[in-house]
Amino acid sequence: MSKILVTGGAGFIGSNFVLDWRAASSQAVVNVDALTYAGNLENLSSLADDPDHIFVQADIADSERISTLLQQHQPSAVVHFAAESHVDRSIHGPEAFIQTNIVGTFRLLEAVRSYWSSLAAERKSSFRYLHVSTDEVYGSLAPSAAAFTEKHTYEPNSPYSASKAASDHLVRAYHHTYGLPTLTTNCSNNYGPYHFPEKLIPLMIVNALAGKHLPVYGDGMQIRDWLYVKDHCSAIRRVLEAGRPGEVYNIGGWNEKPNIEIVKTICALLDELRPRADGKSYSTQITYVQDRPGHDRRYAIDASKIHQELGWKPADTFDSGIRKTVQWYLDNPDWVAHVQSGSYRDWLQKQYKDAA
Ligand code: NAD
Ligand code: TYD
User: Fold this and answer.
1) Domain annotation for the chain: domains and CATH numbers
2) H helical segments located in 200-317
């Protein structure tokens, strides 16, 4: 039985994908992750006794190492999650984003191209390289503009989205020029278990429980389309199974919401599930703080193509997904405590000063 190779499988979405893959498939996973601040082997602790989860700590930009792994494990597919993923960090320090998202993706593509070229005809034609990307490459939408389709122009506005856009273009070129059987997915904002608490939803949950401020940028009316992470994973599995090489598939939850509504929903759920000792609502902790520079106002995904071509749609609604997510954070205080290391505290200090 052949294997798949996943990059970034110790991060938020990658670890959810690996866990779901091992639950749903008999194919083994080679999980390649550099274990940056965002990578966490604790996410994968339930696979500790699974011989078909092979973890390798390596950088995707280490061509020799990646080539050796490809030769050694002979995967039938590569699913590429590894990235620097946080917009605010890309504003403070863009270089790591250029290095991993652009140079890293380029080196990975080169290693994969060389491996794929050496395969026998049948394995060569069934091989797939799936590139996991974001809706942020399309830029910001006006309030009444139609949602992003796969044909929308690329207008990335942050160093993060620009680096992801560059990597998408490289993937496109490797298909067009070399015939590499690539698939690209552009997904909206994810939320769910194992989400590092520097992103909106987990930050609000852990800050609320710690009695801290809930820092809402600007007027809180920026709109994102939110998708439960397990639905993103099922979409990736479906694209891998039936997507057409060279194609792009947008993935979203048909679920646009302004940030302030997200934060108030989290507060209401916590009021119900873990009421504050003083009987007040967690919403009293909401604090409006200085806006993010260049903050995109609205993202919205048109996920018609993946629905019509591949029959995929999300299983969770926002109501069911956010309830499960809040409950997961309540049930996993040890995971939360372990990720709140010195470097996490340094980040809060740098980004929020006294606000968080
Ligand atoms: P994350 O930051 O939680 O995880 C990234 C993982 O990649 C970490 O485990 C990290 O250790 C690893 N990594 C970083 N640099 C590496 C390198 N040079 N070599 C090997 N591993 C490295 O990110 P995430 O939220 O899980 O996002 C995963 C992918 O999905 C990214 O490509 C991101 O752009 C994309 N995406 C994310 C979202 C979202 O809402 N989080 C939405 C759409 C697309
Ligand atoms: P984030 O989770 O960083 O995802 P992205 O910027 O990739 O969409 O942020 C989601 C939204 O929440 C975004 O509009 C910025 C906003 N936000 C806040 O208002 N306060 C915060 O502390 C954070 C981290 C984000």
Assistant:
1) 3-195+227-256+295-318 (3.40.50.720)
2) 200-209, 229-242, 259-273, 304-310
DSSP label at 102?
I
Q: Do residues 135 and 148 touch, judged by C-beta distance below 8 A?
A: yes
In the reported structure, the alpha carbon of residue 61 is separated from the centroid of ligand 1 by a whole-number distance in angstroms of 14
The gap from C-alpha 350 to its chain's centroid, in whole angstroms, comes to 23
Contact 348, 289 (CB under 8 A): no
| Ligand 2 contacts CB of residue 214 (under 6 A) | no
Helices 12-24 & 229-242 angle (0-180, nearest 10): 60
- Which strands sit side by side in the sheet containing 223-228, from one edge to the other? 189-191, 223-228, 256-258
Question: What's the rounded Cα separation, in Å, for the pair 68 and 238?
Answer: 28
Does ligand 2 lie within 6 Å of residue 223's CB atom?
Answer: no
Contact of 265 with 52, CB cutoff 8 Å: no
pLDDT at 204 over 90: yes
How much distance in Å is there from the Cα of 80 to the middle of ligand 1? 9
Mean pLDDT computed over 3-11: 98
What is the Rg, in whole angstroms, of the alpha carbon atoms belonging to the chain?
Answer: 20
Q: What's the pLDDT tens digit per position in 213-240? A: 999 999 999 999 999 999 999 999 999 9
Q: Report the nearest atom of ligand 2 relative to the CA of 222.
A: 14
Q: Which atom of ligand 1 is nearest to the CA of 85?
A: 2
Measured between alpha carbons, how far is 68 from 54 in angstroms, rounded to an integer? 15
User: Which residue's CA is minimally distant from atom 4 of ligand 1?
Assistant: 11
Within 8 A by CB and 6+ apart from 58, the residues are: 32, 33, 34, 65, 66, 69
| Cα separation, 155 vs 284, whole angstroms | 37
Regarding pTM above 0.85, the answer is yes
SS3 label, residue 191 = strand
Question: How far is Cα 190 from Cα 292, in angstroms, rounded to an integer?
Answer: 19
